[in-house]
Amino acid sequence: MTTQENAQGKIYILPQAIKTVARHSALQSYGVISLAPANLAESVGRFVNKDADFGIEVETDADGVNISLNLIIEYGLRIRTVTDSVAESVKYNVEKTIGIPVKRVDVNVRGLRISNPD
Amino acid sequence: MNSKPITLPSEDERHRLLQSPVNGEGLMLLFEAGLTWLMTNQQYVNSLNVFPVPDGDTGTNMVLTMQAALNEASQTPSRNVGEMARMFAQGALMGARGNSGVILSQIWRGFARALDHYETMDNGLFMRALQEARNTAYKGVVRPVEGTILTVIKDITSAAEVEATQTTKLSELLVAIVEAGDASVKTTPELLPILKQAGVVDSGGTGLFFIFEGMLRLIQGQPLDVTTAKVKPLSELELANTLETIEEGQDYEVVIDFAPKAEFRLEDYYEGLETIGTSIQVGEGEGIYRMHIHTLLDKRYEPIAYTEAVGTVKKIMMENLQDQMNQRQAEEEPVKCAPINAGEIGVVAVSPGVGLSKIFASLGAAAIVEGGQTMNPSVKELVAAFENLPTDRIIILPNNKNIILAAQNAAKVSVKQIGIIPTRNAPQGFAAMLRLVPDGTLEENEEAMNEAITEVHTGEITVATRTVEIEGVQVEKGEVIGLYDGKLTISASSVEEALKALFGKVDMGEFERITLFYGEGMTQTRVNTLVDQVRKDYPGHEIEVHDGGQPHYQLIIAFE
What we know:
The structure holds two protein chains of two kinds. By secondary structure, chain A is an alpha+beta fold. Chain A has one domain: 2-Layer Sandwich (Alpha-Beta Plaits). Chain A has three helices and six strands, in the order E-E-H-E-H-E-E-H-E. Chain B has four domains: about 10-220, DhaL domain (Serine Threonine Protein Phosphatase 5, Tetratricopeptide repeat, Alpha Horseshoe); about 235-330, 2-Layer Sandwich (Alpha-Beta Plaits), CATH 3.30.70.980; about 335-455, Rossmann fold (3-Layer(aba) Sandwich); about 460-560, Hypothetical Protein Tm841, Chain: A,domain 3 (2-Layer Sandwich). The interface between A and B is medium-sized, with 29 and 34 residues.
């Protein structure tokens, strides 16, 4: 949880809020097909709760936030460029909308989707 | 950038190669023309880049992607369009740079898939290739954002679907594609609000448009290395910032959007404007020009008549700058300090609110610096405040404990003699001001002021920013608290209660006069009611009230 303070009081930003921004930004990024469960617990969680939040991990500390994304990417794209774009876009949008520095964005490509076999 | 400018083949050669159906060599030539025209307009495309991340590299990324594609294709030149497009797409994939480069590589990938195994490409096949390009591009993203390059490829394809059935000439099909692309680029701000806010069209979509326009220009024999618009894009016109200061001759601001006539010459237009006014800016965005000028009152209609002569006026905006400036000055009239006599001691007071500043000025401060609890002035601001005073003897009243250090540093960097009175709040500052003897020595004044600030006691009423317990006073965040000489003394649920409780804790018998400075969140009527109550409760005391205008503190109270 990150804490900021203004004249009226404290502001707490919970990881869930950061995840929502990161998720939206990642899914709008070209080449990203979906988020992927990061581990067994998340995979199981998907069956129990359809709206379960998976694929994004957020860690915060005093001087910023680290984000880890687990993604499925479209086959046939230059993966390095797609991952660079996603990381840049997520960092930019989280910093812009939430106003806390993003220190790292790690991108794990968990799989590729083939929609266009050439 | 290591790129060879392409040399256009001769008229005959070009005619032969671009005869529909086009073979592999012809397709290669079209791609080359697209790249060349994109390179010519690269900086313009860069300047439009605000989405998804405003880093101004879309044009460069698209050029690099196209170059990689062309390099790959030229390794194994083929007369077969299928083979040629496949290599081109392969190169684009390997060399894709940036978001727009990746989408572009998908477009060429789909394009190539449709041409697979074909020797030549006629208009029907070109249209099917665009359809496949569009479909492939859209498959690459789960939440397509419209108002981007995706929208442009979609609109281009729709136009091609219609035109390909009408004509067998490649040039005619490309005219339809370019027209649709142009229209599509212009709609992007309507689809993507961030573009509209920034006053630009989409950069990736514009880049794609230039690629197809380059192909058309090649066929039409138009030059590919001379940009049509060398003027700044609209986004670079900082219209909002031009109002900071206005000089003589700038009574009116006139902004005109217009579509110029074919024979329009920008240089001539500029020259004419210079005889009318100042602060001239002309920007171009997709065929529409925007002109911005400041003129005198009696010349304010001249830019309109002048522009009507060179094009079709679309929109006129006019603002009375003089009036705006007057209004602004009335709103935030700075507190004026009376000039001091040369050589006298000059007092610089830091003040958090307009009302308090006025009091400091009326007490004889030589300069006021705005600042307080959450807006500490910098050392530079402090120095600037006294550096030009006609004296080398200065006293600084920080009026906040957080500003004392900045005042000490300001003293270090200045050659003037500087005394700092460690005033922690406005009432202490006022008490110090009252002891000022401008033609006395610095030491005498410092001594008197330091004594004065121990004689005044200060109450402050504010809202707690956190939950805390200090010296037995339990405070919940959001509660109103009262401080006496900087110490947390009471907490209450309202300003009225807090004031009453604070007075209860203070030995009121010791004082004769109470002065209240009201600030943030306090209205005149609320203060009047409050003061009536105080007067009733303490009939033996002299009660004064001033509008302090300070933020954060609802009340600052001086006890004397």
